[in-house]
Specification:
The complex is a heterodimer of chains A (586) and B (346).
Chain A (H helix, E strand, L loop, with lengths): L13 H72 L5 H13 L3 E8 L4 E5 L14 H8 L5 E2 L3 E3 L7 E13 L5 E10 L2 H8 L8 E6 L5 E3 L3 H5 L7 H5 L3 E6 L6 E8 L4 E8 H52 L14 H59 L3 H19 L5 E3 H18 L4 E7 L1 H5 L1 E3 L3 H13 L6 E10 L2 E8 L6 H6 L14 H14 L4 E7 L3 E9 L7
Parallel strand pairs in A: 13-15
Antiparallel strand pairs in A: 1-2, 1-6, 3-5, 4-5, 5-6, 7-8, 7-11, 9-10, 10-11, 12-14, 15-16, 16-18, 17-18
Helix pairs in contact in A: 1-2, 1-4, 1-7, 7-8, 8-9, 8-14, 9-10
Chain B lengths: L1 H45 L10 E6 L6 H16 L2 E6 L7 H13 L4 E4 L8 H9 L4 E4 L10 E4 L2 H15 L4 E7 L5 H13 L6 E8 L4 H15 L4 E4 L2 H13 L7 E5 L3 H9 L4 E4 L2 H16 L7 E3 L3 E4 L6 H7 L5
Parallel strand pairs in B: 1-2, 1-3, 3-4, 4-5, 5-11, 6-7, 6-8, 8-9, 9-10
Antiparallel strand pairs in B: 10-12
Classes of the chains: A alpha+beta (586), B alpha/beta (346).
């Protein structure tokens, strides 16, 4: 038989097959889903970054536009006040301008200059410095060159007044002042704005952790505002403004600074500035990386879980099959007394039930076979038994003829009567089991006949306990024993014979004994008398005994049968051990 | 009663289980697995997805004089870098540039506090060497700015070529005085390496110009007040001179202040160093004719940036020249020069 090691993983087992295929399938599915999800996330993240950047920058642009419009309004109102004032400088005008100046903390300077650079009026009213190069400053020149057009300068340091140097954006416009004589004078109106509001606006921009927005001048690409303006000015940081200048609005990827960045551009319409939003791709990628890590851990977790589940499940599936296999091995070895417990009504459960039914059927068939064999044997023995009678009848009738010839009528009558009774009980209406009383009666008649035939060569006694008489016994059990005692015990003996038949109950069992005082049986023969099965090697001696023994055992079971004790020249006792039953076995 | 009920339950359960068989159990397992996975993923999404800010690094910036205008600009640059590179910056220094002892103490103190990097503008070329060696032993990189330290353990030096700056100042003065005149060098600290290098540059530049005559080098200890007094003394001693070369901001401020007071502004040419707001005003007003600017903002910025790179074990340049430029009243408001001269403060 093939050895079956009790291993958890046998590579040819169903358990392994289930686990492997399930795990492979799960991994495949999870990996596929992960890849699809990752790509989807990737694209969504990029799209989202694009969209949200555009929204943020658009928002900043409109805020900035709004702010510039409000500054334009301030400028216009200053211009209006000045034009309305008439003679300059005017105290009331200065007062009104002061009000405007004080309410706006982003105003640095309000100034009115003649075309030659002479100050007409200004706020603050501090002394002017020397060497201001006023007329050559860009805001002044553009105001003179484009009168009636409000121009915005690029950031510069305001050097006009004796206080601190401040970085400002100058709004300037060439205007005509009405003079007292009705003529008009060209003048330049200046409003300087600091970066406070623009800085606030810029700070409100959130483009990831590192992202920021800066403002460039549309025409020359000068940086108007940058969160790290000083670094730009010091030359420690660069922005690729050339490319930004090519766009009016939109987004593009830029790696000119060595880092992948997403640039979003929006133009502020009324001033010719552009807002450039910068966000770093590695931050978008960071999200991607996190998704990656997440998907990786998810895969691991699912894998571990699936492994556990399949381990459990495959064990659940394969264990009953293994149990079934073991049971089958037992059956293979010949043990049919097996019943597999059915735990579930699944495929294996049904298989187990079929197997149980099959084993049951086999067991039944085998039992039937045994029964049939026994029945066959019984009938054979009974046929053998019945063969005794003709021979016995022949001898007896010869004796009767002889007695009739000698005129012993009394003996003839006795013999014929006994013979008649003998056969009546032998037939006993075809029943196989008869009461012990009948059996004893039957043997008594047999002994009477035999005693007369052997001319009183022996005497006989029949004793029976009252209890034993009620029991039923297999019929014609004693006759072969007595026949044996006469032929092999008494006949060869020279002494007067004695045959004693006794029936009794011992330990609940029916005991029938046949004793004789014949020559006895040689010990060697005694040993094999009941066990030897080969028929007729020793002139039929013992065949009767063996037949009786076998019949009893076939009918009642192994624990019953004959027991023979014998001593040379002393005699033989054959004990028949039977159950005491009121009814015979079927 | 209880037994019966239990039996009923068992029967129901059995029937329930029995109906589907293996396929049903597989289906249940798969369903359970997917639910588990969903739960897991739900947990995952619950967390904030965001970048974890890297650990803040502690860096100390120790300058020559924590009250000095020049050093304030250095600090601004350092702070810009600190913001950019996620650094917790400590700014400190003695209250005057002569005080080497205090500076050594400060360096030792911040080393004890466990600073991870040190940006140092040394008050003395030699005396700070031990402190640098000590830092190196602790594995703390030291980046020197503006002034060098005589130690091979210095990670990097960021500053200008002082000799070249001296030559530039001399050239400008020669240009202003048309190759002829008597001059005084108003130097800041005797024994200071930077001071020596700058003066050496001036003298070398004029070595072949006998008409450019250096009367004297006066040391005035990097204090505007004492440099002002020195200016008065010089004018009293020599009467008229053609020009003063003031080799740092304190000397420049002191000299400019006194020249203006004495009405000598413009008459005595003043070539200054650095670009403090006062100097710039005098430059515009014509008291100072020209100034040689270094780039203190860049020094601060690059100092912190370089020390961060050194902490991160990146390769850093041993020497970074931030460059000098000669600015006069004419070009001071040129767009590029504005950007160099005036700190952009919102």
């Amino acid at each position: 038989m093939r050895p079956f090691p009790p291993r958890l993983f046998c590579f040819k087992s169903i358990q392994f097959l289930i686990m492997a295929s399930f795990t492979a399938m799960t991994v495949l599915v999870v990996v596929l889903v992960s890849i699809v999800l990752y790509n989807k996330f990737n694209r969504t993240a990029e799209n989202n970054a694009f969209l949200s950047n555009q929204q943020v920058i658009y928002q900043v642009a409109s805020n900035l536009e709004y702010y510039i419009r409000s500054m334009t309004v301030v400028f216009s109102s200053v211009e209006y006040e000045i034009k309305a004032a008439g003679e300059l400088p005017d105290k009331a005008l200065t007062e009104r301008m002061n009000t405007i100046f004080r309410t706006r903390e982003d105003l640095v300077t309000i100034g009115l200059f003649t075309e030659s650079g002479q100050r007409i009026t200004s706020l603050p009213a501090a002394d002017m410095r020397g060497n201001t190069h006023l007329t050559s400053q860009s805001w002044f020149r553009s105001a003179v060159e484009n009168p009636n057009h409000l121009s915005f300068s690029i950031p510069h340091v305001q050097n006009l007044f004796k206080s601190s140097y401040k970085w400002v954006v100058s709004m300037s416009k060439g205007i005509k002042l009405p003079l007292a004589n009705g003529e008009e004078m060209n003048a330049v109106l200046l409003v300087d704005v600091n970066f406070k509001m623009i800085d606030d606006l810029s700070r409100s921009v959130k483009l990831g952790q590192k992202g920021y927005a800066y403002i460039i001048d549309d025409s020359a690409g000068n940086i108007i505002y940058h969160p790290q303006q000083q670094l730009i000015y010091a030359g420690l940081k660069y922005e690729n403004v050339e490319q930004a200048l090519k766009y009016t609005y939109g987004s593009y990827f830029d790696d000119s600074t060595g880092v992948d960045r997403l640039i979003t551009i929006q133009t502020v319409s009324n001033v010719g500035w552009k807002i450039v939003g910068v966000s770093y791709m590695d931050e978008i990628v960071t999200t991607q990386k996190e998704i990656n890590t997440f998907l990786f851990w998810l895969l691991l977790a699912v894998l571990a879980f699936v492994l556990l589940i399949t381990l459990y499940m495959s064990a659940k599936i394969s264990q009953p099959i293994k149990r079934l296999e073991k049971s089958m091995q037992l059956v293979e070895r010949g043990n049919f007394d097996i019943h597999i417990p059915i735990r579930r009504d699944d495929e294996v459960g049904r298989l187990s039930r079929r197997f149980n039914l099959m084993v049951n059927r086999i067991r039944e068939l085998m039992n039937q076979n045994i029964y049939e064999q026994e029945a066959k044997r019984k009938s054979e023995l009974e046929v053998l038994q019945s063969q005794i009678h003709p021979h016995f009848l022949y001898n007896t009738l010869n004796s009767v003829v002889r007695m009739a010839g000698t005129g012993k009528n009394e003996d003839v009558i006795t013999m014929i009567t006994s013979l008649s009774r003998f056969f009546r009980i032998s037939l006993s209406r075809g029943e196989r089991f008869i009461p012990v009383a009948d059996e004893l009666e039957h043997i008594r008649h047999y002994l009477i006949i035999q005693k007369m035939r052997y001319k009183n060569k022996f005497e006989f006694e029949i004793d029976a306990e009252e209890a034993a008489l009620q029991c039923r016994t297999l019929k014609l059990v004693l006759q072969p024993l007595v026949e044996n005692a006469i032929y092999h015990g008494i006949e060869p003996s020279v002494d007067q014979g004695l045959i004693r038949i006794r029936a009794g109950i011992e330990e609940g069992k029916l005991m029938l004994r046949v004793e004789d005082n014949g020559i006895g049986i040689p010990p060697a023969k005694l040993k094999t008398l009941l066990t030897e099965t080969s028929l007729g090697n020793d002139e039929g001696t013992g065949i009767g005994l063996r037949n009786v023994h076998e019949r009893i055992r076939l009918n009642y079971g192994e624990e019953y049968g004959l027991h023979i004790e014998s001593e040379r020249e002393e005699g033989t006792t054959v004990t028949v051990r039977l159950p005491c039953r009121q009814e015979g076995p079927k | 009663m209880r037994g019966k009920a239990a039996a009923a339950v068992v029967v129901t359960a059995k029937r329930d289980r029995g109906r589907g068989g293996i396929m049903r159990r597989i289906a249940v397992a798969v369903a359970t697995a997917s639910i588990f996975a969903l739960l897991l993923s739900a947990c995952g999404w619950g967390e904030d997805i965001r970048t974890v800010p890297g650990e803040q690094r502690n860096i100390a910036l120790i300058v020559k004089n924590k009250d000095g205008e020049f050093w304030n600009t250095v600090k601004m640059g350092a702070e810009a870098a600190a913001k950019e590179f996620n650094v917790k910056l400590v700014f400190d220094g003695p209250t005057n540039e002569i005080d080497t002892e205090t500076q050594v103490e400060l360096v030792n103190k911040y080393l004890v506090y466990g600073t991870e990097g040190l940006v140092l503008a040394a008050n003395d070329f030699v005396q700070l060497a031990d402190s640098v060696a000590k830092a190196d032993k602790l594995g703390v990189p030291v980046v020197t700015i503006e002034s060098e330290v005589d130690s091979p353990k210095v990670t990097s030096f960021i500053g200008i070529d002082n000799y070249e700056a001296g030559r530039k100042a001399a050239q400008k003065m020669q240009e202003l005085t048309k190759d002829k005149g008597r001059f005084v060098i108003l130097n800041f600290l005797k024994g200071s390496r930077n001071a020596e290098r700058r003066e050496r540059g001036i003298r070398d530049e004029w070595a072949d110009s006998p008409d450019m005559q250096v009367l004297e080098t006066v040391y005035c200890d990097s204090s505007a007040a004492s440099c002002g007094q020195a200016t008065i003394d010089i004018l009293r001693k020599y009467g008229h001179i053609d020009g003063i070369l003031a080799l740092n901001s304190a000397a420049s401020i002191g000299a400019a202040e006194q020249l203006q007071k004495l009405g000598k502004d413009g008459l005595v040419r003043l070539v200054a160093f650095d670009n403090t707001p006062e100097e710039l005003e005098w430059l515009q007003e014509g008291v100072i004719q020209a100034t040689v600017i270094q780039n203190p903002f860049s020094m601060g910025y690059l100092g912190v940036k370089t020390v961060v790179e050194a902490i991160d074990r990146q390769k850093v340049a041993a020497r970074i020249d931030t460059g000098t430029k000669v600015i006069d009243a004419e070009n001071m408001f040129w767009s590029d020069n504005q950007k160099m001269l005036f700190p952009f403060v919102q």
